[in-house]
Amino acid sequence: MNFTGSNILSVEQFDIDSIQTIFTIADRMQPYARRQKRTKVLDGAILGNLFFEPSTRTRVSFGTAFNLLGGEVRETTGMESSALAKGESLYDTARVLSSYSDVIAMRHPKSGSVAEFAEGSRVPVINGGDGANEHPTQALLDLYTIKKELAYHGHGVDGMHICMMGDLKFGRTVHSLSRLLAMYKDIRFTLISPRELAMPDSVLEVLDQAGHHVTVTDQVSGSSDADIVYQTRIQQERFTTPQEADMYRGKFRLNSEIYTKHYKPNTVIMHPLPRDSRAEANELDNDLNQNPNLAIFRQADNGVLIRMALFALTLGVADQIEKYECDVNWYSEKRTSY
Ligand code: NCD
């Protein structure tokens, strides 16, 4: 895949080689993310960071990644504060904002909206989540995390067993991650959700066609040899009414007791975050915070590396990162998780 000038809209555009290219560059970003070195490779470049749906980590990590490469960030948040609220089309917004930026990261509540926007854009557009459809950069950081965590335990991705749990219908992270994992070999998927929130058929078909072993269930069972448990939040913003979401909140929880009962002692615990910590939901309990297998914060840290790699690739500077290196002048704490 030729990344320079390309949009990143869906995981479908990758193959194993292009994923490996992204991961190799992400590894090279560690000294900058750890503030051991700086690079000014994107000095003068502008990121248009357009988030028309709530976001903390994805939005800030896109911005941080761009800043760490020496670039500037211009941000728009919320639909109501943008001209989309006045009826402007995505095409027009894209034509205008792409003149102001060198690359755009965008999140929007409607499926397919980021691809529609990209048609009007003159610069590369990176999908930061389009409705319940896709979240390709999250899937890449999830897979990068899975590879690292499993390597620590002496395993690879091929042949692993992953349990995905919670809202698999509306959770775009599990859609994109499943499609990405489908490119590997012989994976066991245990998909645990209320029946009404099961993984969409379109994703199950991809897994089936690639020959993976898939179990769809509404019971937390058969997970005792899982390598990864990937918990998700009930996506309340995608339900017609909040009351409907209430029916499913708190149904599939993970806490220390459940983990010990159903999983092996080194099953890696993941969650795209935010976890819903309200008592009625609490899908991933704080009592697991000290468990060394809890990878959620390492996962979030990895998002910066992956987004740095994607910016370097789409803007065609991946071979010049070190050339523009300079020293860090300020006191900086030791960061190890990147
Ligand atoms: C996820 C999202 O927005 O799809 N969050 C994220 O980007 N890390 C998951 C969620 O909101 O539940």
CATH class of the largest domain: Alpha Beta
Task: Characterize the largest beta sheet: strand count, sense, and whether it forms a barrel.
Answer: 5 strands, parallel
Low-confidence stretches: none
| Tally of DSSP β-strands | 11
Q: Based on helices, strands and strand pairing, what is the structural class?
A: alpha/beta
Helix content: 25-40%
Instruction: Count up the helices.
Output: 11
Going by CATH, the homologous superfamily of the largest domain would be: Aspartate/ornithine carbamoyltransferase
The total number of structural domains is 2
Layout of SSEs?
Elements: H1 16-28, H2 30-33, E1 38-39, E2 46-51, H3 57-68, E3 72-77, H4 90-100, E4 103-108, H5 113-120, E5 125-130, H6 136-152, E6 161-165, H7 172-181, E7 188-192, H8 201-209, E8 213-217, E9 228-231, H9 242-246, H10 256-262, E10 268-270, H11 296-314, E11 325-326
Parallel strand pairs: 2-3, 2-4, 4-5, 6-7, 6-9, 7-8, 9-10
Antiparallel strand pairs: 1-11
Helix pairs in contact: 1-11, 3-11, 4-5, 6-7, 6-11
The structure holds N-carbamoyl-L-aspartate (NCD).
InterPro entries: Asp/Orn_carbamoyltranf_P-bd, Asp/Orn_carbamoylTrfase, Asp/Orn_carbamoylTrfase_sf, Asp_carbamoyltransf, Asp_carbamoyltransf_Asp/Orn-bd
Keywords: Pyrimidine biosynthesis, Transferase
Protein name: Aspartate carbamoyltransferase
